[in-house]
Structures are given as C-alpha cells and as structure tokens.
Amino acid sequence: MIDLTSLAVTAFAFFVVAVSPGPANISNAAVAMSFGRRTSLVYGAGLSCGLVFWGLVAASGMGAVLQSSLYVLMVLKLLGGLYLLWLAWQSGRSAMRRDAGKVSLPKKGRWFWRGLILNLSNPKSVIAWMAALSVGLGPDDGLASVAAATVVCIAVGFINNALYSLLFSVSGMMTGYRRFRRWIDGVVAGLFAIAGLGLIKSAFAR
C-alpha cells in the first residue's frame, strides 16, 4: 500500500532540489527572458525529459551501480563538464556582443534537444534523485511505492520547469533582460563555467 505521507515528503524533497538555481534552471530562465514563453516551455520540456531519464536510472537501482562505477561516472562527468563550458562560451560570446540582433539563434525545433542534452550531460542529477527518493521511501516500501514516488517527482520536475518558463517570460523580466542583456549573459557564462569546472574537478576526485 502506498503511503501518501511518504509520497508527499518525497515530492517536497525533490521540489527543494529541483527549484534550486542550478545550470538547468539558470539556462531555462535565460532562455525565457531572451526568447519568450513558448521557446522556454519547449526547452523546459527537454530539460524535464532529461530529468526523467535520471529518475528512471535512480528508481531502477542503476543509480547506485553508476555511483560505484568509477570510470563510467568519470567519463560522464567530463562530458557534462565540457558541455557546460561550451554553454559558458556561448553565453560569453553573447555578452561580448553589443547588438543582440547579431546573435545566431538555434532553430525552434532544436530547443527541446538542447534542454534534453543539458540534463542528460549532468550525472549529478541521479544523486539528487536518489537523495529525494531515500527521504520518503523506506527499506520496506515495495515496487508500487517506488513507482508512485518516481511519477510524482517527474511531475514536480515538469511543473518546476514550466514555472521557470512562465515566471521569467513575463514582460517585465524580458524588458529587464533586454536592458541588461550583456551583464546577465556575462553572469550566466560565469555560472556555467563554474559548474562545468566543478563537474570536471569532481570527475577526478577520490
């Protein structure tokens, strides 16, 4: 039998993790302010689907195997760190341009894939999933409880990304971004660079 209290605790724990300003949320906010609500919702859907992948990995028990597989995890972290550094370079290029109109924008159909790749490239997501699931689930919980907790967390992930898209695409946010675009893109570039270097550094940590 599924314990609704444990389910609520798991959902809240995952929401706290999901809403924190990590690379995915920062990039979603930047996309929303830059290109508007529709593009950001598509990008956020990609982020959410990437999160679903890591959720299924964690729920199936493969998350623990991945954490114990030193070289596989190292390669994933290196690839993820390099992708974040690439995003930092892209944001840095945008910050250096005075005219936003000169920036080459991805086609709309690519936004979903960019969001998907960003979350797939961050193996630390599986740690967040395992932490959230372990908060609400106990050793005696069966497959139904694990499945229910995973589905609820997936829903929380989609809601979180949609909220970021809706909040940062309001006219005031977009007007402010256009006014301070170079500063905002510079800060985003710095945050991506820090996250990328941190992920690469963690790949070699023992």
UniProtKB/TrEMBL annotation:
<keyword id="KW-0472">Membrane</keyword>
<protein>
    <submittedName>
        <fullName>LysE family transporter</fullName>
    </submittedName>
</protein>
<feature type="transmembrane region" description="Helical">
    <location>
        <begin position="111"/>
        <end position="131"/>
    </location>
</feature>
<keyword id="KW-1133">Transmembrane helix</keyword>
<feature type="transmembrane region" description="Helical">
    <location>
        <begin position="183"/>
        <end position="204"/>
    </location>
</feature>
<keyword id="KW-0812">Transmembrane</keyword>
<dbReference type="InterPro" id="IPR001123">
    <property type="entry name" value="LeuE-type"/>
</dbReference>
<dbReference type="Pfam" id="PF01810">
    <property type="entry name" value="LysE"/>
</dbReference>
<feature type="transmembrane region" description="Helical">
    <location>
        <begin position="41"/>
        <end position="64"/>
    </location>
</feature>
<keyword id="KW-1003">Cell membrane</keyword>
<feature type="transmembrane region" description="Helical">
    <location>
        <begin position="143"/>
        <end position="163"/>
    </location>
</feature>
<feature type="transmembrane region" description="Helical">
    <location>
        <begin position="6"/>
        <end position="29"/>
    </location>
</feature>
<feature type="transmembrane region" description="Helical">
    <location>
        <begin position="70"/>
        <end position="90"/>
    </location>
</feature>
